[in-house]
Design goal:
Blueprint lengths: L3 H30 L3 H27 L19 H28 L3 H30 L7 H17 L3
Bound molecules: hydroxy diiron-OXO moiety.
């Protein structure tokens, strides 16, 4: 039996995963609009992945016979100054989600809710993977001194993201 506070927080996480999916969809559309098809493919790939995260939590709530309440999802930003800003915002967002998952894990442990803690292991590992991925991209950005976003630098990062999308099909 899940505690009411845990049910509330898990439902909030459902909404957060939907927001993440919409954020990446919007980022992908922005990249597409800039002619950055590799970056667009990379972000588009994250859209169903985030929805799978949503479904994993919903399935767990259902398994626990706990109510699912799908909350309103805020609209993601539509304007970005540059591709670097998009990548930075994606990384910041993943850090935020990691903090949310860690809070949930802490709450589960504190209340001896070991089933939820066990379910959350997937998310803890997933967030670590996501952080490594985005940190790696930011390292590449630094490596080619991607500050002024010259056409050449943008082309290289776009290609790098394209390869990354092809290397990690989900
Ligand atoms: Fe990007 O991992 Fe879920 O939110």
């Amino acid at each position: 039996m899940l505690k009411p506070e845990m049910i509330k927080k898990l439902n909030e996480q459902v909404t957060a995963e939907m927001y993440a999916s919409n954020l990446y969809l919007q980022m992908s559309a922005w990249c597409e609009d800039q002619g950055l098809s590799g970056a667009a493919a990379f972000f588009r790939q994250h859209v169903p992945e985030e929805l799978a995260h949503r479904d994993k939590i919903i399935d767990y709530l259902i398994e626990c016979d706990a109510p699912v309440t799908v909350g309103a999802v805020d609209a993601p930003p539509t304007e970005f100054k540059s591709l670097v800003e998009v990548i930075n915002k994606a990384f910041e967002h993943e850090l935020k989600v990691t903090a949310m998952i860690h809070d949930l894990a802490e709450m589960a442990l504190d209340s001896k809710d070991f089933n939820t803690f066990n379910m959350l292991q997937f998310f803890i590992a997933e967030q670590r993977e996501e952080e490594v991925l985005f940190r790696g991209i930011l390292d590449q950005v630094k490596l080619i001194a991607f500050k002024g976003e010259t056409g050449e630098a943008m082309y290289l990062i776009n290609q790098f993201l394209q390869r990354s999308a092809q290397a990690h099909p989900h």
